[in-house]
Amino acid sequence: MRLRIVTPLSVVVDETAISLRAEDASGSFGILPGHAPFLTALAVSIVSWRTSDTEHFCALRGGVLTVGNESDVDIATREAVTGDDLATLGADVLARFRSDADDERTEHAEAMRLQFNAIRHMVSRLKPGANMGEFR
Length: 136
Hints:
Structural class: alpha+beta
Distance between the termini: 67 Å
Number of helices: 1
CATH class: Mainly Beta
Helix content: 25-40%
Shape: elongated
């Protein structure tokens, strides 16, 4: 089966694999040649796959995995880092991806708070019972 891992900026992996392991919200799963068409959202995790002679790893910052009719596996992700040392990927890269995801959640919450404050301020400036287009 053909495995492709792509980010918005590059094709990170494009090779033939004989098996693949990945992780979504429900847990870890495997893909072998002949797998039925499949679609899932991936967690921040490490994908592993075997070629004829070795096992490879790629840390993913979430993403979407699809298995097509020909058992081709395509993974689209925001960021991917490949490596042959699972310990390094697990310790360094996944920790950074998780930290980045936490920072993004905090930034999103702060942006929403600012938007709600702006809306609250605009609504408080309206005259009660006045036409919505009229201000004080």
